[in-house]
Amino acid sequence: MGDSLPRVTDRPTPVSDQARAVKAASRALATASTTLKNDALLAAADLLEGRSADVLAGNALDVAAAEDAGIAAGLVDRLRLDESRVAAMAGGLRQVATLADPVGEVLDGWVRPNGLRISRVRVPLGVVAIIYESRPNVTSDAAALCLKSGNAAFLRGSSTAIHSNTAVAAVLREAVSKIGLPADSVVLVEDTSREAAVEFMQQRGLVDCLIPRGGPSLIASILENATVPFVIDGDGNCHVYVDEHADLDMAESIVANAKLQRPSVCNAAESLVLHADIADDFLDRIDLVLAGVELVGDERSRSLLDRIEPASPEDFASEFLDLKLSVKVVDSLDEAIEHVNANSSGHSEAIVTDDLRSADRFLDEVDAAAVLVNASTRFVDGEEFGFGAEIGISTQKLHARGPMGLAQLTTAKYQVRGDGQTRG
Amino acid sequence: MGDSLPRVTDRPTPVSDQARAVKAASRALATASTTLKNDALLAAADLLEGRSADVLAGNALDVAAAEDAGIAAGLVDRLRLDESRVAAMAGGLRQVATLADPVGEVLDGWVRPNGLRISRVRVPLGVVAIIYESRPNVTSDAAALCLKSGNAAFLRGSSTAIHSNTAVAAVLREAVSKIGLPADSVVLVEDTSREAAVEFMQQRGLVDCLIPRGGPSLIASILENATVPFVIDGDGNCHVYVDEHADLDMAESIVANAKLQRPSVCNAAESLVLHADIADDFLDRIDLVLAGVELVGDERSRSLLDRIEPASPEDFASEFLDLKLSVKVVDSLDEAIEHVNANSSGHSEAIVTDDLRSADRFLDEVDAAAVLVNASTRFVDGEEFGFGAEIGISTQKLHARGPMGLAQLTTAKYQVRGDGQTRG
Hints:
Chain A has 2 domains: 18-234 and 405-414, 3-Layer(aba) Sandwich (Aldehyde Dehydrogenase, Chain A, domain 1); 238-383, Aldehyde Dehydrogenase, Chain A, domain 2, CATH 3.40.309. The first copy, chain A, is built from 16 helices and 16 strands.
């Protein structure tokens, strides 16, 4: 790096060689002290600001290539870095340094009748692999969370951001090695071919956990190709159910917030379920609030509000990520729960109600990572839950479910202490 | 069932139809009270004893077929049931009824600055699929643990035990439905073809967790074919490292216990690692104790004890499950840890030492589900850990690591309670 432009090597290292290197580095990182890990994060933040010219030079190459390729202006904007975005990336590294270190937490412990003392202790996973799409800040954000939780970071970004990612990774590697951790604590795969992506998903025995950050095609590729353990950061077909016992003012503000505050994210609402007793009143009020939103619905909702277009079964199963909302009218809480469970992607599901029994039944019977009573689905993320940062939101049930912070980047180890016990 | 022989249907229901039925049943089971679940387990125990003639008749068909096929006597014996083995299966069901119900446990909870109250609550996984080899008691043991943890059990046993498994499953289904839970809380796949096994591993969206109970070829098939989330109950290449600071009497009894007490199980020791300073003395003592054990080792160990045969690299990576042990001499704790980490299957690893620093370093730096100081590796199982029962021992890092009891058959759900909060 230094004064030359960031460079993508002509003949990239094979992915499996890189995986072995990152695995070897993970041993040192697993037992690194919190102080050392924080020093690495702070050094990386300083160096990122100090080398922002390198990073911006790399980014300029990516932006130029994206513009040449005729990529939509919105996407090019997401790709583009400037001094303030680099400063924000550095700020992210510093913020992760302030978070509590999850490693070493004693989760529980007990003594057996034979005197064996058993503790379950939180330890790093080892190598966390992250495959992600265009935004270059994911490179530093993901590496920071991995480092803080004692994991080596194995990263694979998209070709669109390759020069930016290469520059950022080089800075991170230099910073961690400067404070005495292996440079291979952070390894970026520079080969952006599809074959390399598949290879990246198949480093069994070297990668302890793979996390995708991207859209449905990336998820589908993981499901098809991955042979390493993974956690799916899946889509959010989130419902808000307005119960017959709802405070309709509250329901109005929650529905508006869940749909409108940031429609492009996974915890935005995609579907509105209404109890028949309040459906007419509620559609009257919400019509104006949702004036800019395309509505599709079942026949009953369409009989109450003219502008609702017919919904296909796919509409009820879709994450629109847009100003579009499906509407369904139900006769009972049972029907609402059944509809939600049949269509939910298992992300976040909300009920608005003043009835205790409806609230309790919805909380118990709806099968999702997060269920909410009288609150917007938009609260379901790591920051809003108080985790300080998140690597994603898991929609699967194994290992981690819901927002994933530092703790979800760890596993547990049993430590058993005896004084010569043998089994009879 | 009743007075007719247990029968395997000629044209089995497609696996996907069965998966849909068990998924539907899982909804009712997820919110069933502990009392109801215990009643089901006790009813199943009583019915299993009451119908033991049916079960034994089915088993007789399997045993006859196995004998006709010339299957080894030891395996036929594992397959064979008698009144006392059926009584033991019933006892297992009753014992699971006495265990604490993990469902509903509040794992943690906090209040956010905006007043949102967040709890993380233990909930069933939904559908737990178990694929297993010949012993018919797994049918009732696995179903019991699933039921108690609020999960529907989707079972696929081997063709060798199909009539026994069918009879046991019929009894369990009758018992749960008699006390008011869906019969499909327990579903056995009667199609024992290889195609059905692969289909069983691919019911994505219907099966929440797949657990294999069997040998390396079953695990390999899961890794190759499964598209549902799974937890690997893998093999145990367990080491005992005798440190230079070990009490050699203690080391002798621990090594003998770890190797000899039950050589055929995953937590038995397969490899002995000796510090050079005590290697000669220790091999002298252990030679007699391990008289019936085939020893293979590195050159240094062979120079100390004549009867040690040369070990291949595969020997150091092997789970023998037999009266065979690999021996390696090292010069330092570092070398011991490196050797263990390079060859470990991540199951259970032990050190014998009186030195605090050696103990702490081994506990911290060895990467396995369980690490032990001055105790036999044989203690690493659900019963010995105090879980009451186990479904297996996970050698993976995601979701569950080490012995899996009822708690490991659950996931968590965030319950968020507000009073109208929206995100700013």
